[in-house]
Amino acid sequence: MKIELIGGCTKDELEKRIQYVAAAGKLSRFPGNVIEVLESCNDYESNLKLIKRIIKMGHKSIIEHDFLVFALCDVTPIIEQTLIGYRLTSFTIKSRREVDFRNAGFYVPEFRNKNNEKHSKNEQLQKEYKEHMKMLFNTYANIVDKGVNKEDARFILPYCFHSNIIMGVNGRELEKIILALKYSKLSNIPDLKELGNKLYDIVKESVPYLIPNIDSQKEDLSSGFEYLEGLEKKPEIKILDKTKMISYTTNSDDVVLESNIMYHYQCSKETAKNILNNISKKDKNAKEKIMNDIMHKEERRELEQVSFTFQIPISLSILTHLTRHRMHSLLVPEFLPMWNQENYITPEAIKTNANDIYEEAVKKNIEIVNKFKDLDVNEGDLIYFYLGNQMLNVITTMNARNIQWICKLRCCNKAQWQIRYIAKDIVKQVSEVAPLIGKHLGPTCITDRYCGEGKECCGLINKLLEADKKQN
């Protein structure tokens, strides 16, 4: 992998960045307006000392004013999924839906044993690993050549393939990332630890105020589940058939409507409830009309007053489609311990056009994983055998505003099919318990008679508008 800081790294840029952070730290306790305080922070060494002193006291919000942009070249999707989990970062990632990955290349770990030492058969294991990965990439190429689109062919790609990312991150989040990659349980995964070390080296030169706190940390490899596992044996992993709502805010529609009245009139909940009952007697469609107004407001904070919790079966290939929506509380199983690789999905296009070579490749992958396990290879090195078709159950809680946003994008016919099915299941289940909210969930062509896809539109919007004309 190659990691480069592509912004804010020249001497002048570094000094300016440090000046802004120092000014943020100085502003609350010094006289003068913000411009005067900024101009007073004109000495690099003094600024650096001030920043270190302030963050040592625990006041780290000032380093959120330092923003850096990194180019992450030839990193694995293991890194990709891990980093996307940090919500205050910004990413652009090469699309597996649009780009042919047959020649992308892949990561090769130095294999370790259970004691975290170099495996005695490392060279032999690496040779067999490389041959196997080439087979998987050739299978991917054969599937594409058989007419299966790249979107579906990627389900056979191993999770060691090279991805490329542009990442923007502030100083505070960067510190969290480095600490986790270098010192937590994540450090048992080779390329994550390598990334942590490379980011640390860059930080030494370009974000020096972070170094004292990073250096003071100690390694903590605990999983956080030791107590639980000591009391209860882990059950067999069973993947859900489809998305399942497991809890929700009772009377969600009325909660949203009453909150709208409460904050607008600054009244109590009881008063708001009475008002809602009164206007509903005057107009039987009052609730629907108010909800329509809420759903089309700019802020729509009322929708954030209710939440829905789902357990969702999803593949590794599509997991980032869900993770990248930052404003929901997503619980994703950790890569370790290894999941059951028999839990995989086969896209319909592959079943129709390339099922034999796909199933043969999946079977060989499971066999070699079991072989490496029998040779006591460290589990942290086996995760690169995960395939994109690997299924897992995730849990998330979303407020209604976030659900509306996700469904606008993911219910679209242009969305990837698995995430589209998930989004449609969410719409269906929310509609059953909150019909007024549910009425406004879905792609924009249906909810707002608008499509932003331009020439790449699926054509549904034109049919809907034509149908509207005939009705009117």
Any key phrases for this structure?
22 helices; 472 residues; alpha+beta; Alpha-Beta Plaits; 8 strands
List the uncertain runs. none
Question: What is the mean predicted local confidence, pLDDT?
Answer: 95
Distance between the termini: 60 Å
Pattern of helices and strands = EHHHEHEHHEHHHHEHHHEHEHHHEHHHHH
User: Helical content, roughly?
Assistant: 40-55%
Q: Given the C-alpha coordinates, what overall shape results?
A: globular
**Largest sheet composition:** 4 strands, antiparallel
Number of strands: 8
- The CATH architecture name of the domain at 305-333 and 392-471 reads 2-Layer Sandwich
Widest beta sheet: strand line-up = 1-2-4-3
Strand content: 5-15%
